[in-house]
């Protein structure tokens, strides 16, 4: 059985996105401090299977460094009305990353 290696030119599928988030969650779980607790808890309450195409688009815009604060706030506003807890937690993680990006641009 051979696993398909993703081509950079091919668009990322929703399944690829969910696997990527699951991998981030796994890495966070393995990243422990000296006392054995997690260093961060961004993904503790995130179930990657509950994320959808909108979450993927916002994440991709963040990775492309094209996401704006206004877009993030609009996305979060909708999630707090109709989204799952996983989506809400994921949006908080994206917010943290966006502000780190913005801080690094200023330097």
Question: Which helices and strands appear, and what pairs or packs with what?
Answer:
Layout: H1 14-30, H2 53-63, H3 69-82, H4 85-106
Helix pairs in contact: 2-4, 3-4
Describe the model:
By secondary structure, the protein is mainly α. The chain has one domain (14-106). The protein contains four helices and no strands. The protein has helices at 14-30, 53-63, 69-82, 85-106. The N and C termini lie far apart (48 Å).
What low-confidence regions span 5 or more consecutive residues with pLDDT below 50? Answer: none
Radius of gyration: 15 Å
| H/E element sequence | HHHH
- SS field, number of helical segments: 4
Calculate the terminal CA-CA distance, rounded to whole Å: 48 Å
Summarize model confidence as the mean pLDDT. Answer: 87
> How does the helix and strand content classify structurally?
mainly alpha
User: Could you give the count of β-strands?
Assistant: 0
The main pleated sheet reads as:
none
How much strand? Answer: under 5%
Tell the overall outline: globular
- The percent range for helix content is 55-70%
Domain module count? 1
């Amino acid at each position: 059985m051979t696993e398909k290696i993703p081509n950079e030119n091919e668009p990322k599928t929703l399944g690829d996105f969910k696997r990527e988030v699951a991998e981030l969650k796994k890495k966070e779980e393995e990243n422990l401090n000296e006392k054995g607790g997690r260093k961060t808890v961004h993904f503790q309450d995130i179930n990657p299977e509950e994320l959808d195409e909108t979450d993927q688009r916002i994440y991709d815009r963040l990775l492309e460094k094209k996401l704006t604060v206004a877009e993030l706030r609009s996305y979060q506003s909708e999630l707090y009305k109709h989204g799952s807890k996983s989506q809400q937690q994921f949006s908080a993680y994206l917010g943290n990353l966006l502000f780190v990006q913005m801080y690094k641009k200023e330097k």
